C-alpha cells in the first residue's frame, strides 16, 4: 500500500516514523489459543538480535520533486516509488476536501479498481471490493492496523472516524497475503489519520436534504513530548425513502509520544450506528433495522537504528443487533439476531539494510472470536448479551491465525527484485501450515518511465456468516474451504511534473471461491465453494496538473481519468450468484477541478458503471423475476469558497437525479443537496 511523505528540495529524502508521515508497522494479531510460553518464545525470537523491528516507511507524493527517490511500502521493507512493482495510489487531504462527498465510502467510489456497493447512504453500510473481488476479500486498515471484521465484510467499514478526520487514504490493488496476511486477497485499503504538531481546533457543520445533519469537531494538542489528536462526529438523516433513516456517532483519539527508546503510537475509537435497513438482506422483508457498535484500540513502539523493530498490539470489538422486523413482526418470527466479535493480536516486524539489499522478517498472531445466537457451534453455557436485557448468546466460535514471513529485496542498477513468502497456520485448517510466496520485479527505463511485474499467491478464510448463518432466505455452510488464488500482474508507470499515468494488466486464478448462490428462484441462498473463477482486467489512471503547464492563474486546475475493466469466467455449475459474479465490468471516472472567481472553486466527478449479473426484482415485497443490472452515469458537484482557515461549501450528489440499482433490489438515492462550513482555529499563528 502506498505510503508517501513530504519531500524536501532537490532529491533529498526525509524519513519519518509512521504510515503517511512517520514510521509505521503493520501488525496482525495475537491468538488467545496460543500459550503464553509459546508467545514469549516467538516474541524473543523476533526481538533478540539487535535493537529491533520497524515498519515500512512512507512518502507522500508531491509534483515538485523527483519520484525516483521517494520511498513506498508495497513490501515488508520500504522501496522507492520507481522500484515498487505494484499499482499503489493515495488520496491526499487536499483532494478529500475538494471532493463532492461526505463519507469514506463515497470517496472510494472514485478510486480506480475499487467497487463500492452501498446499502445505506453517507457511510451507513457499504461493501468494498477491489479488482472484481468480493466484499470479504479486501483488507481494511486504520493507521496500518487490521480492522476487518471476521463476522462479515459488511462491517469492515465501521470505522470510528469520519471523513473530516482523515488525512489520506492509501490503496493497494491486488493480492497482498505476504505483506498483510490472510484476507488481503484482492487488495488492501489503509485509512490514515495523524496528530499534527500545530495546535488547532477544527469545526465542521453541514445540513441538507432529508434532514441531513453532519457535525464534526476535532483538535490537536501538544503537551511536552506527547502529541494528541481528538475527534468526535455525529451524522443523521430522516432517510430518502421509508426506513432509510440513520443516526451515527464517532469518538476517536490518537497519540504519539516521543521517548528515549523510540516513538510510541496509540489510538482508540468508538462508533455507534442505528439505521433503517430497508431491504438490506432480503427485499421480501423491507422493514429491517440494524444497530452496531465498534470499540477499537491499538499501541505500537517504533525503535531501532540499524535493525528497525516495531512490536504492536490491538483489540477490536464489534457488536451487532439485526432486526428482520423493525416493528409488527410476523407470527413465526422468533426474535432478533445478536452478534459480538472480539479480535485481538500482536505483530513483530523488522527489517535491515545491507550491501545485499533490504531484508525483512517477523511474526504475526491473530485471534478471531464470535458469540451469537445464530452463528457458531453451541456453547456449553449461554452468555448474556451486553446491553440487551434478557438476551443471551447460545453459539460461538474461535480461530487462531499464526504467520511468519521473510522477504529480501535486491537492487542491481535500474533493476529491483523482491522475493518473499508468508508461512501461515490457521486452527480451522486441520492445523496445517500453508506457504504463500510472491515476487515483485521492477525496471526503470528512464527517470519518467518504469515497468513492473509481479506474482503472488493469497488465501481468504470464510467469514463466520459464510460458515454458520441460517435465516428465512439464507443458509451457511460449515464445511466451506478457504479461497485460494494465484495472480499475475504487469504494468507501466510514467510520471512527469504535469502528467502522471499508470497502466496495469492482471490475471487471477481463483479456486474454491466462496459465494452465496442458488439454482432456482424458490431456493434459499446458500454458500458454496465455486470450483474455479478466472479473472483478468486492466486499469488506467491519468492525472494532468494543468496549473503546472498553464500557470496558476489558468482557471482549470486539474483533469483526471480512471478506467478499470474486469472480466470473470467461472468453472462451476450454472448458479445464480449473489456477490462474486456480479462484478463491476466497466468503471470510468472523469474529474475536473477549476476556479470560478477569486477563492470560489468547483470540483466535478462523473462516473460510469456497467455491472455483470442480475438481481431479484421485487415490487411491494413481492418477487417479480430476475433483472439484469443496467449501466448508468452519475455526476457529483461541489462548489466551495476557501481561505486558509475557512471553507464554505455546497455539495450536490447525483446531480441529474438518476434512478439506478447497484446492489440487488436496493433503491439508490436521487439528487441530494447539502451545504456546510468548516473552520480551523490555529493556535500557533
TrEMBL record:
Ranges where the TonB-dependent receptor plug domain occurs: 84-188
Family: Belongs to the TonB-dependent receptor family.
Subcellular location: Cell outer membrane
MF terms in GO: siderophore uptake transmembrane transporter activity
Keywords, comma-separated and alphabetical: Cell outer membrane, Membrane, Receptor, TonB box, Transmembrane, Transmembrane beta strand, Transport
TonB-dependent receptor-like beta-barrel domain segment(s): 245-655
Organism whose genome encodes this protein: Mangrovibacterium marinum
GO biological process, any: siderophore transmembrane transport
Topology class, membrane: Multi-pass membrane protein
Main location: membrane
GO-annotated cellular components: cell outer membrane
Lineage: Bacteria, Pseudomonadati, Bacteroidota, Bacteroidia, Marinilabiliales
Keyword Transmembrane applies: yes
Claim: Mitochondrion is one of the keywords in the record: no
The protein's name in its UniProt record: Iron complex outermembrane receptor protein
Amino acid at each position: 500500500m502506498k505510503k508517501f511523505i513530504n519531500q524536501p528540495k532537490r532529491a533529498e529524502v526525509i524519513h519519518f516514523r509512521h504510515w503517511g508521515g512517520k514510521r509505521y508497522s503493520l501488525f496482525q494479531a495475537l491468538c488467545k489459543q496460543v500459550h503464553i510460553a509459546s508467545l514469549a518464545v516467538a516474541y524473543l525470537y523476533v526481538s533478540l538480535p539487535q535493537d529491533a523491528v520497524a515498519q515500512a516507511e512512507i512518502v507522500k507524493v508531491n509534483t515538485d520533486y523527483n519520484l525516483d527517490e521517494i520511498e513506498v511500502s508495497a513490501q515488508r521493507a520500504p522501496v522507492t516509488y520507481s522500484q515498487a512493482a505494484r499499482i499503489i495510489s493515495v488520496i491526499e487531504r487536499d483532494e478529500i476536501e475538494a471532493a463532492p462527498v461526505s463519507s469514506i465510502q463515497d470517496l472510494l467510489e472514485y478510486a480506480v479498481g475499487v467497487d463500492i456497493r452501498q446499502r445505506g447512504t453517507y457511510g451507513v453500510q457499504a461493501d468494498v471490493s477491489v479488482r472484481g473481488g468480493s466484499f470479504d476479500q479486501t483488507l481494511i486498515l486504520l493507521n496500518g492496523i487490521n480492522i476487518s471484521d471476521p463476522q462479515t465484510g459488511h462491517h469492515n467499514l465501521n470505522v470510528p472516524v469520519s471523513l473530516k478526520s482523515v488525512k489520506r487514504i492509501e490503496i493497494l490493488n491486488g493480492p497482498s497475503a505476504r505483506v498483510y496476511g490472510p484476507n488481503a486477497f484482492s487488495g488492501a485499503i489503509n485509512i490514515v489519520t495523524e496528530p499534527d504538531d500545530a495546535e488547532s481546533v477544527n469545526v465542521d457543520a453541514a445540513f441538507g436534504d432529508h434532514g441531513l445533519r453532519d457535525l464534526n469537531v476535532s483538535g490537536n494538542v501538544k503537551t511536552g513530548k506527547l502529541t494528541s489528536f481528538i475527534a468526535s462526529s455525529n451524522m443523521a438523516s430522516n432517510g430518502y425513502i421509508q426506513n432509510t433513516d440513520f443516526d451515527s456517532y464517532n469518538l476517536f483519539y490518537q497519540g504519539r509520544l516521543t521517548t528515549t527508546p523510540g516513538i510510541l503510537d496509540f489510538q482508540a475509537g468508538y462508533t455507534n450506528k442505528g439505521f433503517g435497513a430497508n431491504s438490506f438482506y432480503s427485499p421480501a422483508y423491507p422493514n429491517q433495522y440494524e444497530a452496531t457498535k465498534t470499540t477499537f484500540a491499538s499501541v505500537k513502539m517504533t525503535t531501532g537504528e540499524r535493525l528497525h523493530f516495531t512490536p504492536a498490539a490491538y483489540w477490536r470489538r464489534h457488536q451487532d443487533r439485526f432486526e428482520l422486523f423493525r416493528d409488527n413482526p410476523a407470527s413465526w418470527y422468533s426474535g432478533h439476531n445478536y452478534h459480538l466479535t472480539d479480535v485481538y493480536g500482536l505483530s513483530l516486524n523488522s527489517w535491515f539494510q545491507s550491501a545485499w539489499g533490504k531484508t525483512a522478517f517477523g511474526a504475526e498472531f491473530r485471534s478471531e472470536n464470535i458469540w451469537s445466537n445464530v452463528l457458531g457451534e453451541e456453547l456449553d453455557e449461554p452468555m448474556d448479551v451486553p446491553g440487551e436485557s434478557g438476551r443471551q448468546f447460545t453459539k460461538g466460535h474461535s480461530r487462531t491465525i499464526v504467520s511468519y514471513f521473510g522477504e529480501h529485496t535486491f537492487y542491481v542498477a535500474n533493476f529491483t527484485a523482491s522475493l518473499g513468502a508468508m508461512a501461515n497456520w490457521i486452527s480451522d485448517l486441520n492445523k496445517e501450515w500453508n506457504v504463500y510466496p510472491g515476487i515483485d520485479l521492477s525496471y526503470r527505463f528512464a527517470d519518467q518511465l518504469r515497468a513492473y511485474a509481479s506474482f503472488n499467491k493469497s488465501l481468504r478464510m470464510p467469514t463466520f456468516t459464510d460458515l454458520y448463518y441460517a435465516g428465512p432466505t439464507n443458509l451457511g455452510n460449515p464445511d466451506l474451504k478457504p479461497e485460494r488464488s494465484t495472480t499475475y500482474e504487469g504494468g507501466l508507470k510514467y510520471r512527469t511534473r504535469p502528467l502522471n499515468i499508470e497502466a496495469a494488466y492482471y490475471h487471477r486464478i481463483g479456486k474454491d471461491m466462496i459465494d452465496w448462490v442458488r439454482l432456482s428462484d424458490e431456493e434459499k441462498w446458500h454458500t458454496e465453494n465455486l470450483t474455479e473463477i478466472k479473472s483478468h482486467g486492466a486499469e488506467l489512471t491519468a492525472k494532468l496538473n494543468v496549473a503546472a503547464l498553464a500557470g496558476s492563474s489558468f482557471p482549470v486546475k486539474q483533469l483526471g481519468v480512471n478506467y478499470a475493466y474486469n472480466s470473470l469466467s467461472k468453472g462451476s455449475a450454472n448458479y445464480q450468484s449473489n456477490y462474486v459474479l456480479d462484478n463491476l465490468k466497466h468503471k470510468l471516472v472523469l474529474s475536473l477541478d477549476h476556479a470560478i472567481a477569486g477563492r470560489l472553486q468547483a470540483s466535478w466527478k462523473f462516473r460510469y458503471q456497467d455491472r455483470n449479473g442480475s438481481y431479484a426484482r421485487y415490487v411491494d415485497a413481492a418477487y417479480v423475476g430476475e433483472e439484469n443490472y443496467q449501466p448508468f452515469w452519475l455526476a457529483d458537484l461541489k462548489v466551495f469558497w476557501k481561505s486558509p482557515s475557512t471553507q464554505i461549501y455546497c455539495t450536490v450528489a447525483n446531480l441529474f437525479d438518476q434512478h439506478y440499482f447497484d446492489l440487488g433490489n436496493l433503491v439508490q438515492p436521487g439528487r441530494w443537496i447539502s451545504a456546510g462550513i468548516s473552520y480551523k482555529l490555529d493556535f500557533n499563528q
